[in-house]
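Protein in question kept underneath.
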Amino acid sequence: MKILQIMCHPDYNGEHRVSNILAKIGEEKLVEKGFSSVEKINLYDPSVHIPVMDKFMFNYEEEKLTEKEQHDKIRQKEILNQWKSTDAVFIYMPLHNFNVVSKFKDYIDNIVIVNETFKCEVESLIGLDDSDKQITFVITSGGEFDKHIQYTNLDFAVQYVRGIFGVLGIDKIKVLRVEGLDLAFNDKEQIVKKAIVDLKAWIEEFSRKNKK
């Protein structure tokens, strides 16, 4: 089984960031369970190029693209092929302004491609991705978005992830929330400890379901 780990924290090498801490622990647990093929992409690492789509380059002929766009098209194909060849994806992300981080949106624009990962019919969208692909979305936030009445209507990030992967035909999405990290009345250390326990428990379950 090929597993892709996507790290989405702007402080890409910040070892104290909860998102990065969980990513490291999650990777170690996967390896412990025998998943040796864990490929990583850190979206904010300066050495990682994620093209920003200002046109749908994938369907353009080479001669109609600038030199930069030609390079971006090659990179987009690399990102797309990596995604399509993956059996399971673990995404680690902090919430930013009530939504996904901008680099993740750029990443999504490189894999949501008509006639590659989905197709359009008269009145519907048909996913072309592997319907058995398991997505694990670990999202950290300062507020409590599934509890506080003001925040529940701003729960865009989880809605976006479920919706956009649904377009690709993927509905196996496990959401692990790590909430309330910035609330004064919460014990941040205990929240992180619980998140680690929950993540390890999910990987145990994931392993039982997917280990052959």
